[in-house]
Design brief:
By secondary structure, the chain is mostly helical. The chain has one domain: Fumarate reductase/succinate dehydrogenase, transmembrane subunit (3 helical TM bundles of succinate and fumarate reductases, Up-down Bundle). Helix content is about 80%, strand content about 0%. The protein contains 4 helices and no strands. Helix 1 packs across helix 3. The longest helix has about 30 residues. The radius of gyration is 19 Å and the shape is elongated. The protein starts with 15 loop residues before the first helix and ends with a helix. About 10% of the residues are buried.
């Protein structure tokens, strides 16, 4: 007897809500790695000028900036989406149009805050 199989990634139509849920989990994990990078930088200061210079050189290289920009992007996304989840915990915003509207607000807020942060970093 042939039974229908569950939808899988090849035929499943991606939705904003499912993508945002997956991204929320991924940004949570990436925040852990970013925090480890920040801890490395802080600990390097305790181990002397040479260790700190090595950490500083890493973080001010192109890959370091890429990691820091990614970390800030993950931070702002996780923060904005977390606030969205707090409203849901209060029982607000469950109508489909509100779910999509708040989702797009999270996306635009994330981009805006990340860009503003790095504009300030590079201008100061």
């Amino acid at each position: 007897m042939k039974r229908p199989i569950s939808p899988h990634l090849q035929i499943y139509r991606w939705q904003l809500t499912s993508v945002m849920s997956i991204l929320h989990r991924m940004t949570g994990v990436s925040l852990v790695f970013g925090t480890l990078l920040l801890s490395y930088w802080l600990l390097s200061a305790a181990f002397g000028a040479s260790a700190f210079q090595t950490a500083h050189d890493l973080l001010t290289s192109w890959i370091g900036y890429l990691l820091l920009i990614g970390w800030s992007l993950a931070f702002y996304y996780h923060l904005a989406n977390g606030i969205r989840h707090l409203f849901w915990d209060m029982g607000r915003g469950f109508e489909l149009r509100h779910v999509y509207r708040s989702g797009w607000v999270v996306v635009f807020t994330t981009i805006l805050l990340t860009v503003l942060t790095w504009v300030v970093v590079f201008l100061c």
